[in-house]
Amino acid sequence: xxxxxxxxxxxxxxxxxxxxxxxxxxxxxxxxxxxxxxxxxxxxxxxxxxxxxxxxxxxxxxxxxxxxxxxxxxxxxxxxxxxxxxxxxxxxxxxxxxxxxxxxxxxxxxxxxxxxxxxxxxxxxxxxxxxxxxxxxxxxxxxxxxxxxxxx
Length: 152
What we know:
flat
């Protein structure tokens, strides 16, 4: 299934969604006043400005017929990427960052099936090694690099 939307409609909708997310998350922090701003003031302003820009782009696209061509959203690749994100969140505590990254990279490759198995495997292993080095060794994030059951 392919869903075709005007690019400006999609861009305006994304701006509004991101702006609403920023604005709503900023409300968890004290806003303060204009003379004594709290930590939630700036994200609220950014969210509101982004939302207004998004609404303007969105409404202008309908008034002008949606300039800029169309965006085709293919259901299968979008679903595969969504499943890969959920799999990452569920598998990370159980398998560690390196093995989870390999599995998610291989799963994500199903969104573009024209790749060879060797190419996907090689890229997955190299990227998982880079991810492990950067996040576990370099930044020292408290994420297990390997499955915890190997060390218990």
